[in-house]
Amino acid sequence: MLAKEDIVIYTAGKTWAAPAFKRMRTIGYNVNSHWIDIANTLSSPQDSFDYENQDFSYLEKMWDHGCKADACYADCIIAYATKEDGNMHSGSIAEIGHGSASYMYLQIEKPVYLVGSCQSFEKVGNSDRGWTHQRVFHKLPTDDIEEGFRLATEHYAANHFHDWLNWRAYLKANATVQRMFDYCAEQSRIAAATSQK
Asked: How does 145-162 read in b/e, with b if 16+ C-beta sit within 10 Å?
């Protein structure tokens, strides 16, 4: 049986969810998302960026070497949303796509677990949010992030042990891919550090 620390989790959410994701790290979950370590992010739905005066150059590295690589490297994705997020999830949805597409080219399922909800994940207007009907997408019956992480890792351990093994076997057999992920992790650490200056 997989323990919670065995399962590499990519966390998708608005930037103000970063403190909650960091807390999940401190209680033993193996969160690999480097974006949560960026300092210059919004701390609530009411905040906005100073687009004229802020240097966003670190974001290219954070997306190319951080979010994209971290989501693809993880065993699963846990997305977190609150009603206050409204329809503001766009990066989260891109990250969900990065992870959930792996079955098409690896035949390794990387499930997505949604904790909470908001307009971005619910039917609205002419969008039925069809992508939430993928086999690997699971809406968890809780808004509590800690309970959501517990439910997600329990579900993953019970249903995806062979995917977990196959992913590690793939990385072992493909050292170039592992080196690429290691390089990306280092670049995203640099980008996170750059954001704090």
From this structure: beebbbbbbeebbeebee
- Fold classification of 4-43+54-194 is Rossmann fold (3.40.50)
Domain ranges of the chain: 4-43+54-194
Sign of CA dihedral 161, 163, 168, 173: positive
Q: What angle do CA 123, 124, 130 make, to 5 degrees?
A: 40
Q: Which neighbouring-strand residues pair with 138?
A: 113
User: What stretches of 117-174 show up as alpha helix (H) in DSSP?
Assistant: 145-159, 161-173
Nearest-10 Cα torsion for 83, 135, 113, 177: -130
Cα–Cα distance, 117 to 179 (Å, whole number):
36
Say if pTM beats, i.e. exceeds, 0.85: yes
Tens of pLDDT, residues 26-74: 999 999 998 888 765 655 455 555 545 566 666 677 777 778 899 999 9
Model pLDDT for residues 88-103, shown as the tens digit of each residue: 677 888 898 888 898 8
Residues in the chain, overall count: 197
**Alpha-carbon gap, residue 28 to 4, rounded angstroms:** 7
What mean pLDDT is predicted for residues 125-129? 71
Half-sphere exposure of 192 (CA within 13 A, CB side): 16
DSSP letter assigned to residue 39: S
pLDDT at 126: 67
Amino acid at 187: Q
